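Protein modeling request. Please complete all fields; requests missing the sequence field cannot be processed.
Requester role: graduate student
Desired output: 3D structure, token encoding
Chains: 1
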Amino acid sequence: MPYTLPADIDERPVAIAGAGTLGRRIATVFAAGGTDVRVFDVSADQRSAARDHVERQVRSVQQALGLDVPHPGAVDFTEDLGEAVRGAWMVVEAVPEKLELKRQVFGELDRVADADAILASNSSSLPSGRLIDNVRHPERVLNTHYQQPPELNAVELMSCGQTDPAIIDMLLAKLPQYGLEAFHVRRESDGFIFNRIWAAIKRECLMVVEEGVASAEDVDGMWRIWVRAGLAPFQLMDRVGLDVVLDIEEHYASVRPGIPDGPRRLLREYLDNGRLGVKSGRGFYEL
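Delivered output (287 residues):
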């Protein structure tokens, strides 16, 4: 039976499975946007802490995300998973990062959630394709990796490999209504988008300090200057010139064995098409 998107999203709640650090933040965001939320957790202490968090933070989250709604959504907490997901148009899994636990949870969610409910994992490291062993309807499963809302309000959307494309299209349009910025991870990738980029930055920062090139304080000082300028990586490469970027990458590759050729291959493709960046009027961006 083909999957059909829920048609009455605005009248239905969102469910969160897991009331930990991110689960309670995600619940607060949806409540701040005016949607009712049900939060499941087996721990009474976690439910209590999550309730306190939502009550204390929902108004500040509305302000941080620019959400202007008549009133926040109601947030209920329960130790009964079936009760939490009943009627929800989307269920966000936010349980500990343990593969077998997540597989078990997704099998149960697939069994008890409404037939048209979207089943979303907030996992930051486990592709949802690894979580569907016990799922009969993988076409409604995907990763929705929330960062740390509201300050870090990005959400990465990645298919489990069988996700109905209409789900991703709908979430790309729907999530910004909650002040979130949604990004499509176009193929399965361990680390998604930002965590892969951050892994490289973090590793190089540690190497600079370990090699005695700079202190941690100086690394952070230069980082703050670059971030303050607001130039994103591909914008900066276009400004520098992709031919110059390639020359620099070729030099690094000559002195650091093991640097992959893929980035240089991509740059060569752009140069072969006359896309040098600002100096040619087009690079990664049309300028």
